[in-house]
Design brief:
Elements (H helix, E strand, L loop, with lengths): L3 E6 L2 H9 L8 E3 L11 E2 L1 H4 L9 H7 L4 E3 L3 H16 L5 E5 L2 E5 L4 H4 L2 H16 L3 E6 L2 H11 L4 E3 L5 H5 L12 H9 L5 H5 L3 H8 L1 H11 L19 E12 L2 H22 L3 E10 L4 E12 L2 H15 L6 E9 L10 H24 L16 H5 L12
Parallel strand pairs: 2-4, 7-8
Antiparallel strand pairs: 1-6, 1-7, 2-3, 5-6, 9-12, 10-11, 10-12
This protein binds a DNA duplex through helix 3, helix 9, strand 9, strand 11 and strand 12.
Length: 410
DNA sequence: TCTGGGGTCCTAGGACCC
DNA sequence: TCTGGGGTCCTAGGACCC
């Protein structure tokens, strides 16, 4: 029997902002952007939540519900920073720690009684250490499985601890709304409601064959979750097992929908460059390039193309995604969002012929140099030719790095 | 009141191969 | 001389999470 902790930081983004700006404490604060911007709420303070504001809500809606709220742009660097601090605190309690996102983690404390005493005492010590060293509050769920621990930490919010003892999982889950089960979202909730299922207990009582017929494989997993037996694939495995990243993506929603080809193509190039840069930073090569395109009416299309050889080069990603874009875009239609992503990641290039390999090695060297200059002097210092407005395309090949006047030999 | 950006996983059909 | 049957790869879409 395992002892799993799920540690979830309370109103994480807002709380970090409060550390930098203590005057925000106790006020209605919304992190995610300005009130008149396109975008959604990333995090809301408990004060703002009283007015019905919650994450994923459009900023404009939040502003209508809570006009006096303070709207802040997010600071991803700060959150990453504090996420590391949180991680460091957790490692003092167990070597088996797995950050599930920037503000939550699973910990395996099985057999930790000798070191920390009973689970409840360890949890209180963790609370104190966390507050003392990071200034942040967290909520802690304790159970025999990840899923139940996660649900428990949610029930413990804010700043609480909830321990679901072995054997009482089903009893704990039964009275909760099905929506509380990780993986049950709006759509599944509605489908369940249609057959009269609102509570986890209703779900646990259903016939498995019926669930499987109605919801496929998902139905079976759902039944397991409802009983707290934790069969779901994404919850399997040892806490701390590292999973390789599967994809890298960047996307952009325009402030105003646009059908300007120059703007669209330069934006796409910029997104592809960001993706390529991260591939190089992480030492990966990607083989499948994906375009994402969302029109004014929110209809969304994705198109993908798989290369013969994986790449991490700007030029190749840009050329591929531009081709996808030109094949997909209904010319003249206003576009709301563009996205570029890469998948099929591997750590080394496939077999290349020698000539090709040399050419690419040179391009890669130049790009890495450009990446470093960007790090030191900021994005604007090294502007890629392809990212310049109205200058998409041919110059990419002349000057792939964009160091003014210094095109690397190809 | 219009709906971000970064991800993961699942489904399903067609191509292709044995 | 109607339409077997896996297995794997590729593509598109969608649900869901923070």
């Amino acid at each position: 029997m395992r002892t799993i902790f799920h540690v979830d930081m309370d109103a994480f983004f807002v709380s970090v902002e409060e550390l930098f700006q203590p005057g925000l404490k106790g006020k209605a604060v919304v992190v995610g952007g300005q009130k008149d911007q396109r975008g959604v709420v990333s995090a809301a303070s408990y004060e703002a939540r009283k007015f019905g504001v919650h994450s994923a809500m459009p900023l404009r809606t939040a502003s209508a519900l809570c006009p006096h709220a303070i709207f802040l742009d997010g600071h991803p660097d700060r959150y990453r920073d504090y996420s590391h601090k949180v991680h460091h605190v957790l490692t003092q309690f167990s070597p088996l720690v797995e950050m599930a996102s920037v503000d939550e983690a699973y910990m395996d404390l099985t057999g930790g009684e000798r070191l920390h005493g009973p689970a409840m005492r360890a949890a209180h010590a963790l609370h104190e250490t966390m507050k003392r060293t990071t200034g942040l509050n967290c909520s802690i769920g304790i159970a025999t499985s990840r899923m139940v621990a996660k649900v428990a930490s949610d029930q413990a919010k804010p700043n609480g601890v909830l321990w679901v003892q072995a054997g009482s999982e089903a009893r704990f889950l039964a009275p909760l709304e099905v929506r509380k089960i990780p993986g049950v979202g709006k759509v599944t909730e509605k489908r369940l409601r249609e057959i009269g299922i609102r509570k986890v207990g209703d779900l646990a009582g259903l016939d498995e064959d019926f669930l499987a017929r109605r919801f496929g494989q998902w139905g079976l997993a759902l039944a397991g979750k409802a009983r707290g037996t934790d069969a779901g694939a994404w919850f399997a495995g040892q806490v701390g097992d590292h999973q390789d990243q599967k994809s890298i993506s960047h996307e952009h929603t325009f402030d105003v929908d646009t059908s300007d080809p120059a703007l669209l193509e330069s934006t796409l190039a910029r997104l592809a460059e960001k993706v390529a840069r991260r591939l190089r930073e992480q030492g990966f090569f990607g083989r499948t390039i994906h375009l994402k395109l969302r029109y004014k009416d929110f209809s969304t299309y994705t198109r993908a193309h798989t290369l013969a050889e994986p790449t991490q080069l700007d030029q190749e990603l840009i050329a591929e995604i531009r081709q996808l874009f030109r094949n997909t875009w209904k010319r003249g239609s206003a576009i709301r969002l563009l996205g570029a992503s890469v998948s099929g990641m591997q750590e080394a290039e496939g077999q290349l012929n020698l000539l090709d390999g040399e050419r690419k090695a040179k391009a890669r060297k130049a790009l890495t140099a450009a990446d470093k200059i960007r790090d030191r002097f900021g994005e604007k210092m090294v502007k890629l030719a392809s990212g310049m407005q109205g200058d998409f395309g041919e110059r990419v090949h002349e000057n792939p790095v964009g160091l003014p006047g210094k095109a690397p030999k190809q």
